[in-house]
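Worked example 4.2. Below are the chains of a multi-component assembly; read each line carefully before continuing.
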Amino acid sequence: MQRLNIEAVAAGGVAVEIDGVGKRYQGVEAVRAISLSIVPGEFVSLLGPSGCGKTTTLRMIAGLEVPDSGTIRIGGAVVNSTPPWSRGIGMVFQSYALFPHMTVFENIAFGLKMRGEPAQNIKTAVDEAMALVHLSELPDRLPSQLSGGQRQRVALARALVIKPRVLLLDEPLGALDRKLREQMQVELKLIQRQAGVTTVLVTHDQEEALTLSDRIVVMSSGEIVQIGSPSDIYNRPANQFVADFVGMSNLMRARTSSADGDRVSVSFPNGRSYVTKAEGNLAHPSDVDVFVRPESVKLAPNAGSPSGKLSGTVEHIVYAGASTYAHVSVGLAKPVVASLSQKPQDSNAIRIGDELSLDWDETDALLMPALEAGARRTS
Amino acid sequence: MRSRARLRYLDAFVAAIVVFLLAPIVVVLPSAFSSDVALSFPPQGFSTRWFENLLSRGEFLSAARLSITVAFLATAISLIVGLFAAYALFRFDFWGRSALEALFMTPLVFPAIALALSLAMVMSTAGLLRDFWGLLIAHVLITMPYAIRTIGASLREISVAIEDAALTLGARPAQLFWYVMLPLLRPGIAAGAIFSFIISMDEFTVSLFLTGPGLTTLPIEIFNYAEFNSDPTIASISVILILISCIAVATIERLMGLRRVLS
Amino acid sequence: MRTVRSKLLIALLLAPAVLISMVMIAAIATTLGISFLRQFPGDLQVTLANYIAFLSQPFLLKAAYQTMALGLVVTAICVVLGYPVAWFLVKRDTRFRNAVFLIVLAPLLVSIVVRTVGWIIILGNEGLVNALLMSLGVIDSSLQLMRSFWTVVVGLVHVLLPFMILSIASVLSKIDDDVIEAAMLLGARPATAFLKITLPMSMQGVAAGSIIVFALTIGTYLTPIWLGRGNVNVLAVSIHEQALISVEWPAAATSAVLLTIMALVFMAIFLASIRRMTRR
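Applying the procedure described above to all three chains together yields the following structure tokens:
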């Protein structure tokens, strides 16, 4: 990849602070008094299923919606009543929202023209921005003559050329096919890091959020469920919703005994039990869900008497390209999913009907307080 | 195959309807050039005397002038008012939205004679009966639904995200309107303009009640002439009106498709 | 932006159009008011006399009856003629489709005066039809094709058919072909699929078209006067006479109110029957 002339778009980022911000539409609370601090230059993703309030939050930062309560600060100043045209933000829309009657050049130049920049400055800045997104050859094309990936680049260049203090991305890669999306993710991250612009990405694609973000904000029903680094979110999900939404996970209902020091015994309904470290904020005894990622589940042939934390029979094997998953029936409500080693000889070693014992490291598992039936989201 | 035969019947039926729809418009053309003194078919001989008669009669010319003036002004007002109303109706959701839309469309479906009489009565109480301004207001009322519809059709095809994009890029509402919305709405506005102009030019029933001696639109002048004469002059003026309509249809079709404007 | 000041913005955007519509509302209210006055301008005493007078004049009752008959006949013919054309425009895949659409719509932009002149040329005593029949030796002397109820029907169908076709076509085009194909896969023959699926689903378009055609038919003055020539006395003709010739405004207003009520009743009946059909 060519060296980026990042001067064209670098303005340095500013902090974005969201404090107790709420928004309701016709009596329905889309966003419920959320608070979030974004440091200058940070890349934050708002992740959640559709209708979780992530897009509304982004639009409130943009000034396209006005919060009913709370304050939004950009660069320290309260912007609640600042109209979108004077917020100095760049936004990329899911549909790209290119102006269909303007060429690539005119689209990218629009923001500078609105700011009354002299034509020569506009020309220089737009040329640089077009080079940045590899569109220098197409200044006179109309949006209708561009491919999806090219439109996406125009939208990005258009948002960056105004040297925004904050870059807002609303599912910017959602309309691209997988291969192009992964390529654009890399470029986007590179440009963002070099420009140092504070960036907020809205996405329902957990992989995209994990790949791009410094921090991820998981949202559900208008509330923030968890804020953390990608590895935090993946490895230490705050609750069953996050565990379920981000990546594949096993959630096994169990009951703890009274804690013995910092040790506690976990018993499954099938009679198996094991002793593990007691989670700090959990009262014992109580109903819990044991959370383990498929890749943390270790499988071993069941030699004679059952060993490990659980044991069972391989029900079926799902081949998913990069990884292979074994669904092992262990006498609980749902089979436990375990990913198999990538090496073909290992994968082949396990067959449907095999009796296996399952184990995992104490540090790879979490105990989550059990939710009332029905309270758990199945999205 | 039976279904193919059935489609033949359908095609033949549609062809018959096409003939039915075109016939009264087409037969006017040869009749206008007849040298016969009565409106007849087939026309006898060839003559342009009825066009000459038309041009020699001052009342047709002054009626045409009034019609064009009213149509022009009514169109301009309808477009501006219609643009505002269409934007409110098709960009916002608010209490009473559909009721208002129905209200604006009412002149399209209200029995013309009742609307004509009602307008005559209210204009008379306001002292605007057989007055230019009364006539103009009535024509704005009648053309406005067409302006709202055509501009609305155009507006619905512009994504709201495009407006949002312009705003976040620093466009103030006036700039958004001038640099983004107006260029994108241009075909709709042009089609609406042509539609309004033609509807106003052709308007008959309401004008019949609101015009009078010294204030006569072209359709009314033709009507009055035909009450006392049965020569092909009315055919020759019809030819001119048909030509104007043809140009209008062709232009709207090229701008945005007649079908999209109407459905 | 869309919520701040948006109420004020919406009000400002709508104000001019509302103002213009207020003229219409004032006009309708004025007419309603005048229909209850003994004399206007002049005697402003409120009375039901005009309505009683209307109901006691056989001439006006006959006009009301003819208006209703004309409206129903024209509407029915427009449905029968318009439905196949609308189906053709939406479902038939031919290169003539666009041309047919243009020809169907174009008359909407041709003055009713011009179109009525055309019918005089076709149906007049020295017109196209008579000339054709005479040259074929079918008849010896001109037939009296004008001045009849049916001449007026022909003229009105010509004016209003495009409205019916448009409103049926717009509903037909929203019916997904998949639904019909699904019905056929489930064993429905094409005719059954049409009767059970397409026709009921398109009734809304038929209803909307019928309401428009009926209202416009009973409100048309020019066609009955020019093609009927005194033999087809509908309310539109009476209203014109009462208002502009004998200048009895309260009487004219009464006729106009009753005409409008006729349109509203027709609309209510149609909407109710459609609602019952779609609720099924």
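Take a moment to check your reading of the output against the notes. The first helix of chain C runs from residue 6 to 34. Chain C touches chain B through 89 residues (CB under 8 Å).
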